[in-house]
C-alpha cells in the first residue's frame, strides 16, 4: 500500500533559531499519528507546514500522490486534500451551526442536496442534530469543538490535521471528548495528524506517536512500544518517567547496566541507540515511572531498593504520594495505599525491568 502522506527532510528556521531539522516520515491511509513534545519542540510548526500555512525552508511533501511541496512547487492550503481543526474552534460567530458545518461544502460548490446529506450524517455522528439552528455563542465549549470537528469532516478530506483541539476544555469534558473523538476517527478511518501535550490523549487516539525534541524526531513508535521502550530521556519524561536519580555506570552487559547510586547499586535497562552509548564511568540518569516506585515499609518487593526519609506527604484519594529523600540528598516520589508519618525512614523498591538508564 502506497503512503497517503510522505514528509521528506523538512527544515524550518525562524531567524537564527532552527525549529525543524530534517523531519521525515510516512503515513498510511486511515492511520492516526499524534505529535507529542514539549513547548517549542516544533509540533505546531510542522503541522502548519503540512497544512500549507507556513512555507518550509527545505523539503518535500506528497499527499495522495500529489507533490504539494518541493523546491519548485508550493500548493496553497485550499488546494491540498486536507482540513484542519484548531485549538480555539474558529467558528463563524454570526452563522448558525448548520451554516458553519456546510461552509466548506459551499466553497466547494456542492449542491444543496449533497450539503444537506453531509450535514445530516455528520451532525448525527457528532450528536449535533438538535443544535443546528443555534449560534456558536449559545453552545458550550465541548459543543463548539464538536462543530469545529464536524465542519472539518464535512468536506471529506483525505487528511485531517488537529492542533490541540481539546486543550481549552475542562478535565472531565476533555476526557469524554477524547473517547468520542477516538471512536469517530476509527469509524471514519480518516488519516489524522494530531498535536497534543497530553500523553493519555495520544494513547487514546494514536496508532503511532511521533515525539519531537529540538526540531528532530526523537522517536516514532506505537504507544505501547513508546511507553515501554523510550529511546531518550526526553521521551521517557513525556511517557511519565517522572522520577530521576543520578549515578555512575560501574558495569554493563547486553541485558542490564549497573549504576552506583550513593551507597547502593541499582540495575536497569539502558536503551541501545546512538543517543545513549554508555561506557564505564559515565554519569547517567536513572528514570522511573511513579507507578513503578513502591514504598515498602516492611519488606522489599523488588531487586532495586533505596532507604529514604519521607519529607512530604500528599493525599491523592485512593493512595498517598510521598516525596522521599535519599541518603545522598536526592529526591524521588513514591506511592503507598496507607498514610505514613513525616520523617519516617522507609525503603523504596523498583524492578530492574522498569528501570531505565540514560546518559546525562
- CATH level-4 homologous superfamily of the largest domain: P-loop containing nucleotide triphosphate hydrolases
Shape: globular
Structural class: alpha+beta
Low-confidence runs of at least 5 consecutive residues: none
Q: Mind describing the biggest β-sheet? A: 6 strands, mixed
CATH class of the largest domain: Alpha Beta
Order of helices and strands: EEEHEEEHHHEHEHEEHHEEEEEEEEEE
User: Fraction of residues in helices?
Assistant: 10-25%
Beta strand count: 20
- CATH architecture heading of the largest domain: 3-Layer(aba) Sandwich
**Global Rg:** 24 Å
CATH topology of the largest domain: Rossmann fold
Counting DSSP H or I runs of 4 or more residues, the number of helices is: 8
How far apart, in Å, are the first and last alpha carbons? 41 Å
Measured by DSSP, the beta-strand proportion falls in: 35-45%
The largest sheet has its strands arranged as: 6-7-8-3-9-10
What's the mean pLDDT score? 90
Number of domains: 2
Notes on the protein architecture:
- This protein has 360 residues and is α+β, with helices and mostly antiparallel strands.
- The protein folds into 2 domains: 229 residues, Rossmann fold, CATH 3.40.50; 126 residues, OB fold (Dihydrolipoamide Acetyltransferase, E2P), CATH 2.40.50.
- Helix content is 24%, strand content 35%.
- The strands form 4 sheets. It has a 6-stranded mixed sheet with strand order 6-7-8-3-9-10, sandwiched between helices. Strands 13-12-11-14-20 form a 5-stranded antiparallel sheet.
- Helix 2 crosses helix 3, helix 2 packs parallel to helix 4 and helix 3 crosses helix 4.
- The longest helix is centred in the middle third of the chain and has 18 residues.
- It is globular, with a radius of gyration of 24 Å.
- The mean pLDDT is 90.
Amino acid at each position: 500500500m502506497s503512503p497517503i502522506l510522505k514528509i521528506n527532510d523538512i527544515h524550518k528556521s525562524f531567524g537564527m533559531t532552527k525549529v525543524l531539522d530534517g523531519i521525515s516520515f510516512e503515513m498510511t491511509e486511515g492511520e492516526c499519528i499524534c505529535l507529542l513534545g514539549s513547548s517549542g519542540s516544533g509540533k505546531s510548526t510542522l503541522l502548519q507546514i503540512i497544512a500549507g500555512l507556513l512555507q518550509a525552508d527545505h523539503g518535500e511533501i506528497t499527499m495522495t500522490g500529489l507533490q504539494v511541496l518541493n523546491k519548485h512547487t508550493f500548493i496553497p492550503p485550499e488546494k491540498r486534500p486536507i482540513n484542519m481543526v484548531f485549538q480555539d474552534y474558529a467558528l463563524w460567530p454570526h452563522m448558525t451551526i448548520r451554516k458553519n458545518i456546510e461552509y466548506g461544502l459551499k466553497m466547494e460548490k456542492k449542491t444543496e442536496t449533497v450539503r444537506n446529506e453531509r450535514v445530516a450524517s455528520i451532525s448525527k455522528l457528532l450528536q449535533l442534530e438538535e443544535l443546528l439552528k443555534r449560534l456558536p455563542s449559545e453552545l458550550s465549549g465541548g459543543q463548539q469543538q464538536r462543530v469545529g470537528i464536524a465542519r472539518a469532516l464535512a468536506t471529506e478530506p483525505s487528511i485531517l490535521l488537529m492542533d490541540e483541539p481539546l486543550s481549552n476544555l475542562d478535565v472531565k469534558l476533555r476526557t469524554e471528548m477524547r473517547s468520542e473523538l477516538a471512536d469517530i476517527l476509527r469509524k471514519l478511518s480518516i488519516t489524522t495528524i494530531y498535536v497534543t501535550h497530553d500523553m493519555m490523549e495520544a494513547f487514546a487516539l494514536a496508532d503511532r506517536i511521533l515525539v519531537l525534541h529540538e526540531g528532530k524526531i526523537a522517536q516514532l513508535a506505537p504507544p505501547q512500544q513508546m511507553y515501554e521502550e523510550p529511546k531518550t530521556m526526553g521521551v521517557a519524561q513525556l511517557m511519565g518517567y517522572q522520577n530521576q536519580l543520578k549515578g555512575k555506570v560501574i558495569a554493563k552487559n547486553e541485558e542490564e547496566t549497573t549504576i552506583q547510586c550513593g551507597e547502593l547499586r541499582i540495575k536497569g535497562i539502558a536503551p541501545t541507540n546512538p543517543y545513549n552509548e554508555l561506557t564505564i564511568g559515565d554519569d547517567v540518569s536513572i528514570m522511573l515511572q511513579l507507578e513503578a516506585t513502591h514504598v515498602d515499609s516492611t519488606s522489599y518487593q523488588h531487586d532495586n531498593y533505596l532507604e529514604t526519609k519521607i519529607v512530604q506527604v500528599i493525599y491523592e484519594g485512593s493512595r498517598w504520594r510521598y516525596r522521599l529523600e535519599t541518603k545522598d540528598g536526592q529526591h524521588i516520589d513514591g506511592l503507598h495505599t496507607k498514610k505514613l508519618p513525616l520523617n519516617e525512614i522507609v525503603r523504596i523498591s523498583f524492578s530492574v525491568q522498569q528501570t531505565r538508564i540514560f546518559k546525562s
